[in-house]
Amino acid sequence: xxxxxxxxxxxxxxxxxxxxxxxxxxxxxxxxxxxxxxxxxxxxxxxxxxxxxxxxxxxxxxxxxxxxxxxxxxxxxxxxxxxxxxxxxxxxxxxxxxxxxxxxxxxxxxxxxxxxxxxxxxxxxxxxxxxxxxxxxxxxxxxxxxxxxxxxxxxxxxxxxxxxxxxxxxxxxxxxxxxxxxxxxxxxxxxxxxxxxxxxxxxxxxxxxxxxxxxxxxxxxxxxxxxxxxxxxxxxxxxxxxxxxxxxxxxxxxxxxxxxxxxxxxxxxxxxxxxxxxxxxxxxxxxxxxxxxxxxxxxxxxxxxxxxxxxxxxxxxxxxxxxxxxxxxx
Length: 330
Known about the structure:
Strand order of the largest sheet: 2-1-3-4-7-5
Number of helices: 10
Strand content: 15-25%
Order of helices and strands: EHEHEHEHEEEEHHEEEEEHHHH
Radius of gyration: 21 Å
CATH superfamily of the largest domain: Vaccinia Virus protein VP39
CATH topology of the largest domain: Rossmann fold
Shape: elongated
């Protein structure tokens, strides 16, 4: 039998961003007792969502664990730029790559029971797999049985092709050796059109200079004679990704949202629309009620980046519920 009670697990939201992980765990029945985030713009949005009275413990590498309240679970989407194929892949040599050791320090000091961690797919092969091995060995030596898996948000309730590694850790004295955590089952991908609903002014029209830029993009050596404006405009909710020299089209899903990715267009009612920060929040599973709080209050480019840097709410909720169910089993 697992030696734990879990009906009201308390957690702290580390590397919190704008709180996607928090919402997921709260939806699974857990209670947040604080957060840690160093980006001031992200903190502004976080407080807009959750209130000004929330306790930010600041830079986790500077935290004295004795100053933290008692809690059961840590959630953290620890910095991924050092392992991402988009970044410079410095890994453990980058200060951000050291964050995992700061998290482990807190785990050990608080004798923490559980954790849920998230990172990018690029961690799998960074340094020929050595970075992942170091992380798993460190967590094992800290006293945790770790279960991990690469999953896509596309299979957990949002139409976004977002691949991330999720780690679930349970303190070894709370689990029998023959017990394995069961990863959430996949669910049907919802319709994309229910997420592309922003009625803002982010249209790409002939009256705007950005439209001329788009025309030149279609006429570059990679795209020349492959696409026509009239043909593209005929298909509502067609996703157009202009992130690279060659244009990419998606149907029923959007590519991974991330910081700096502002080149996603789509077709609606025969017009080109730019993906908005509000829609990006919805595509990350943020509820409309919270997303509406940020709409027109947080600069759109900031919101796009913050949503791209967030954890997918639906995925974290599924993991949280499965962890609770797992702990309830005898």
